[in-house]
Design goal:
Length: 120
């Protein structure tokens, strides 16, 4: 057993070992990829979530962003036009990739994907 191997994510067993590209727990039989395990542990750490806009700028709560492409909105004939400014965004763990909670003038409260906005 190597001291630098993580414990099993299923049963927290300390006797994990490498088998090719996978890590294996002999106690419960769980197999996992070490790269996937390390990504999950990074996501679980508080404050480690980094959300970037369409061009790679890191976003934070309270930022002002601009919509980079026209978005269709259910119930609206025109949608949100490219270039619309959205102030005071809030980052959330949204559904289906919608990770920005905001109020858009003329549309009200909604969630947007970070991939369709650019930080001002």
């Amino acid at each position: 057993m190597s001291d630098n191997l993580p414990p099993c994510p299923e049963c927290s067993g300390a006797y994990t070992y490498e088998m090719g590209a996978l890590l294996v727990c002999p106690e419960c039989g769980h197999e996992w990829s070490p790269s996937v395990e390390s990504l999950e542990s990074v996501d679980d750490a508080p404050g480690s979530r980094v959300i970037k806009d369409a061009v790679g700028n890191v976003l934070a709560d309270g930022d002002t962003v601009t919509v980079v492409k026209t978005l269709k909105v259910k119930g609206s004939p025109s949608g949100i036009k490219a270039g619309t400014k959205v102030r005071n965004i809030r980052l959330v763990d949204g559904v289906d990739g919608h990770d920005i909670d905001c109020k858009v003038d003329g549309f009200g409260a909604m969630q947007l994907k970070s991939s369709v906005v650019k930080k001002v």
